[in-house]
Design a protein that fits this description.
Blueprint lengths: L2 H12 L3 E3 L4 E5 L8 E6 L5 E3 L5 E2 L2 H8 L3 H11 L22 E2 L8 H12 L4 H6 L3 E3 L7 E7 L5 E8 L7 E2 L20 E4 L2 H7 L3 E3 L7 H9 L4 E4 L6 H13 L3 E4 L7 H4 L1 H10 L5 H11 L1
Parallel strand pairs: 11-12, 11-13, 13-14
Antiparallel strand pairs: 1-2, 2-3, 3-4, 4-5, 6-7, 7-8, 8-9, 9-10
Helix pairs in contact: 1-3, 8-11
The structure holds zinc ion.
Zinc ion (ZN) binds next to strand 3.
């Protein structure tokens, strides 16, 4: 990638930047929070970008351009420089303007002796989340604000654009969960999904992280259109459905849908615990033991359900 041309392009969109040649990072005035200092940091190699003040950020310059709704000619230049061929399609996604809470702090970068950080990390540790997981999923926390005292787990789409995030309190309080008021009709952890491999559908972000490989959280119990379409379009060959016990009706409906579309379905009957409580090894073993769904078995499930 031509660094100089990328700098030129970025400056034509964001005006003059301050380049640090050593770290290959460039900072600009943030167009989102308009802070008076240059706080929007862009890495010219990894393309990761982030504003230190308002917390907006993403994994690709394409995601930045989409968020800024730049003119088409800028995408064309970007495609030339990066050698990618992204079109400007699907620019009207609902999550396009979603950003992490302004108080969000990445836990991988947080000061470890801060009491809030300690509490957040100790909670994650209890839920079997490793430091690699924290780094991979860009897990953070909010010390204050609407999501104060909460772990934040972001979800990114295949282009690195934030498509959802979920908040989970690391203290024992009445309101443990908080999600942004955007549609859940997205593909959870899309950025990490390899559609050529079997996928596992789970309810929550913690469950998906526990399963590690190719796991998609619904952020609820329902499967919505975008994920359904993506699975059929990608010609996924095997789906493991691992919802909590109280969602067996949803799991059965899902199984029925994919089964009738010619996909191998493995309905994972979980014991009383959910995947994140079981942990990686146990859940992986349980999935391995499951038999492929047959028409006979599907009928049995349906009879038992009604
Ligand atoms: Zn900002």
């Amino acid at each position: 990638m031509n660094k100089l041309r990328l700098v030129q392009l970025l400056e034509s969109v964001l005006l003059s930047g301050s380049l640090n040649d050593k770290s290959s990072e460039i900072t600009f005035h943030c167009p989102f929070c308009k802070h008076h200092k240059k706080k929007l940091n862009i890495n010219l190699i990894s393309q990761k970008w982030h504003c230190w003040v308002c917390g907006v950020g993403g994994y690709t310059i394409l995601a930045l351009f989409k968020r800024l709704r730049v003119e088409k000619r800028f995408y064309d230049v970007l495609n030339k420089i990066t050698g990618n061929n992204f079109s400007r399609v699907s620019i009207d996604k609902e999550y396009e303007f979603l950003s992490l809470p302004s108080e969000f702090i990445e836990l991988a970068k947080a000061t470890k002796n801060n009491p809030e950080v300690k509490n957040a990390l100790s909670y994650l540790n209890k839920r079997n989340i490793t430091s690699q997981d924290i780094l991979k999923y860009n897990i953070g926390y909010c010390p204050t604000g609407k999501y104060g005292g909460m772990i934040i787990i972001p979800s990114y789409d295949h282009q690195g654009l934030l498509n959802f995030f979920t908040g989970r309190s690391y203290y024992d309080v009445n309101f443990k969960h908080l999600n942004p008021t955007v549609s859940k009709d997205i593909i959870g952890f899309d950025m990490f999904v390899n559609w050529n491999e079997p996928i596992t559908i789970v309810e929550g972000a913690f469950d998906a992280i526990a399963i590690k490989r190719n796991s998609i959280p619904l952020f609820g119990k329902l499967i919505l259109d975008n994920l359904k379409i993506k699975i059929l379009d990608s010609k996924v060959k095997r789906i493991n459905i691992a919802l909590d016990k109280d969602a067996s009706k949803n799991a059965l409906e899902m199984a029925n849908y994919f089964f009738s579309n010619g996909i191998d379905v493995y309905l994972v009957e979980l014991p009383e615990k959910d995947p994140s409580e079981l942990g990686f090894k146990t859940i992986t073993n349980i999935i391995k033991m499951v038999d492929k769904l047959t028409p006979q078995k599907l009928l049995e499930y349906k009879i038992n359900e009604y």
